[in-house]
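Today's session is about reading a structure prediction critically. Students often jump straight to the picture, but the first step is always the sequence itself: look for stretches that repeat, for charged clusters, for runs of hydrophobic residues. Only then move on to the predicted structure, which in these notes is written as discrete structure tokens rather than atom positions. Here is the chain we will use throughout the hour.
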Amino acid sequence: MIPTRFEYVAPRTVADVVAALDGDSRVLAGGTWVVPEMGRAESHPRRVVDLRRAGLATISVGGSRLCLGAMCTYSDLLASRDVAHHAPLLHTMASGVTGGVALRNQATIGGSVAAARPQSDVPATLVALRADAIVAGPSGSRRVRAAELFLDAGQTTLAVDEVITGFEVPSERRTGHGYVKLKRGGSSWPIATAAALLRLDDAGRCEAVRLVLGGIEAVPLTVDLSVMVGLRVGDKELDAAAAHTVAALSAPWTDVLAPGEYRAAVAGPVARRALALARNNVGVTEEERHGR
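Below is the predicted structure for this chain, in token form.
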């Protein structure tokens, strides 16, 4: 039960959503963060703005970009062939999200990003995919790189009268991917995640590589692995990448799941595993990847 009174609105247009937002309002997407916080009296909004009627759950492809509505759930991602084809990393992430079927059907990618919780799967994944967030506000829409959205644990660059309406992701059809997360148990939030993307040239040398860690620091951490470009990716190179990952850490994050010292200790191995997975599935077709 939520102990305080509030106004509930469910606008049918993005313009009406924006008009309803101010410093005393909360956006309701899937509700997996907002509702429990309100139930624990940790949040006391005057108004709750529900996005479910605003038409923000679409998935489409425009040119070489995958377009995702902010209200897409994990189940929506898993059911979409466009997601599996153009952003298999996103599909893999969604398939292993903590919480089971109920959470996959309820939680949304926009809500996860707006909550900016370090232990969430979505933020680091979208940063690794070089996603752009589409943000609506009183002055219209603007495009923001996902990597530029996060300020600190639970804090984003969004103004109080702005809302994320969707994301655009460049197609990664030719890219191998790996996603690894370390948890205390099957139902636990992740202690650390690593999202890796790797592209090889025709000679098998690294052409491009991206690695983003989640949960290790308060915001997603992009690790510069440009030293791998031009090299064949063997065990020695993976070991070097793990060492670069450790060197990139500046402020490991502490919460009830694990201290910063532990997160710093596991960052290298988690990164190495994700990169190894990405190396091993470069060139794997969608049908092979999903066993069809």
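Discussion point for the tutorial: The first helix runs from residue 14 to 20.
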